[in-house]
Specification:
This protein has 196 residues and is α+β, with helices and mostly antiparallel strands. 37% of the residues lie in helices and 22% in strands. Strands 3, 4, 5 and 6 form a four-stranded antiparallel β-sheet that branches.
Length: 196
């Protein structure tokens, strides 16, 4: 007698957890889940399938390196990232992907970035942050923080973009990475929205 059966949420809901909330455990599991669900032989990994997916969209992987699903061991050039975003915008499932991205000044990991800006609500983008403790200065070194996604300018022009800051020293106060590096990236996105 079956008492209960776990049923996972549909992928459109799962990607909202991974992208909008920036939930690293979900992201970290994605390559493993992809392999478990989609591989055609036992030697394929989730990264093998991801490579097939990306090259199938015509992307050059020379600007991409990835060793985990959560991004701690991942490096993507701005050129690769904007090419990826442009390719995703041509897919039939683009709307679900787009709508799962955080919205500047409104929700997800961008809820508190530029909320008073005219760009709030017009930028759909994924954040990414990697930082390490700097014991010499008793500070935090943000080795990489990114913002990549889509925006529609005030003039109606659709754009893909990828912005990164590297090696920014911030205090250990809570939310300093967001206050310094996150807001700087948000200001650049807001300037792009305004057409500056």
């Amino acid at each position: 007698n079956v008492l209960a059966e776990p049923v996972s949420a549909p992928m459109t809901d799962e990607i909202k957890v991974t992208l909008k909330a920036s939930q690293n455990p979900h992201a970290g599991m994605t390559p493993l889940l992809v392999a478990a669900l989609k591989r055609t032989d036992s030697t394929q990994t989730g990264f093998d399938l991801e490579r097939e997916f990306l090259t199938g969209m015509g992307l050059d992987l020379g600007g991409a390196q990835q060793g985990d699903g959560a991004g701690g061991d991942a490096h993507f050039s701005p050129s690769f990232m904007t090419s990826y975003l442009a390719a995703m915008s041509k897919r039939a499932d683009f709307r679900a992907f787009h709508d799962a991205l955080p919205i500047l000044g409104k929700d997800g990991s961008l809820w508190n970035i530029q909320p008073q800006s005219a760009a709030a609500g017009h930028v759909h983008a994924k954040t990414g942050t990697f930082a390490t403790y700097d014991p010499l200065n008793r500070r935090l070194l943000v080795t990489g923080k990114g913002l990549a996604g889509y925006l529609t300018t005030a003039q109606g022009e659709r754009m893909t973009f990828a912005l990164y800051v590297n090696n920014v020293s911030v205090s250990l106060e809570p939310n300093e990475t967001t206050r310094i590096a996150g807001q700087a990236l948000g200001e650049i996105a807001a300037a792009m929205y305004d057409g500056r």
